[in-house]
Design goal:
Strand content: 5-15%
Number of strands: 5
Mean pLDDT: 87
Distance between the termini: 44 Å
Largest sheet: 3 strands, antiparallel
CATH class: Mainly Alpha
CATH architecture: Orthogonal Bundle
Low-confidence stretches: none
Number of helices: 6
Length: 148
């Protein structure tokens, strides 16, 4: 895992977005206590930094991805401090519905490869554009697979 010192480049890394969402989906669990009350476990920023699946990304890439996933309401939980531009610690408790929609569109490797090709032609893109392009690629793939 690469730690960094100094300035952070404000550029979204689409591969990091995908891997963070996949990690969250696998590691946030729904538990039931002895009274039958359901709650979710959480994933912290430190857990993301230490995750084997994310070791190819710098701490800065992971940090910036998590910050933007919170801002875009793709994930929910608690951020510290509670300031839109800062994030020193967090407890991610949920992938939101729009987060699941994005993840469902980028989960399949074939669709993800086509999505990355499409967004690379556009240069830097927003999470919304990634989601839109991935949705269109998934729809085309589904049509082709189902013979529609």
């Amino acid at each position: 895992m690469k730690k960094s010192v100094g300035d952070i480049q404000m550029k979204l890394n689409p591969d990091c977005i995908r891997q963070v969402l996949l990690f969250l989906e696998k590691n946030i669990k729904i538990t039931t206590d002895t009274m039958g009350k359901k709650k979710t476990t959480s994933v912290t920023l430190i857990m993301l930094y230490d995750a084997k699946k994310l070791e190819k990304f710098s701490h800065d890439d992971i940090w910036y991805t998590v910050l933007k996933l919170f801002e875009g309401e793709y994930i929910s939980g608690t951020k510290f401090p509670n300031n839109p531009e800062q994030l020193t610690r967090c407890s991610i408790k949920n992938i939101t519905l729009i987060g699941h929609n994005l993840l469902d569109n980028i989960r399949d490797n074939k669709i993800w490869t086509k999505t990355k090709k499409g967004i690379s032609e556009l240069g830097g893109v927003s999470l919304n554009v990634i989601s839109t392009v991935a949705g269109k690629m998934a729809a085309e793939y589904t049509k082709g697979t189902l013979g529609m």
